[in-house]
Each structure stands twice: as C-alpha cells, then as structure tokens.
Specification:
alpha+beta, 38% helix
Length: 105
Amino acid sequence: MAIYSVKARYIEGKMKEFYQKLTDGAIENQKPDGQEIINSMKRAKITKPNVIQWSEMCFCSPPLKHERETVYNQFLEDIETEAIDDYVEYEGEFFMDFLAKQNKE
C-alpha cells in the first residue's frame, strides 16, 4: 500500500457525466476501490485551469492501475503520480464544488 500525490487534467466535455457517476452510487459501489475514488475526488482541488490534484491510497502496481482502467481514463488525462508519505491538502477550489456548480447550470 502507498499514498500518492496525483495530478491530472480533466476532460471538460465529460464533467457532467463524471459528476453524475460520482454522486449516483455507480463509482461508490465499485469494488475494491470505489469508495477511495469518491474520497479522493472529495479531496481533489483545482490547482490550475483544468488541472486537479489530490492524494490517494492505492494498493496496485503501477499506481492507480485499476482506478484508471475503470474510471479515471474516461474523465481525466495526463495523469501523473508521485509516492508521498501522507495525504496532502492542496490549495484551490474543491473539485466536487466546481462540478456541483457546473451541474446546476
């Protein structure tokens, strides 16, 4: 098990679908990592235009292998991971708040 700092660009045209899956249980009920994906997206912050960063615990090699295959590669690109010692909180707007606002428009 390791904790990673993760940075990715989100695919703007897919954010409505991503938000729906994050909030309707589709991702949350995914085994074995659905709950960690949900928690990670709740921690994620927009650190630059179209870029989010978060920290996430992962048990697979390469890092986030299953998460990428099942969720992240559909909605995120240019994913970078770096092993870190503990969870980090980044500066910026919470990604989930951003998605919620976008979904109301």
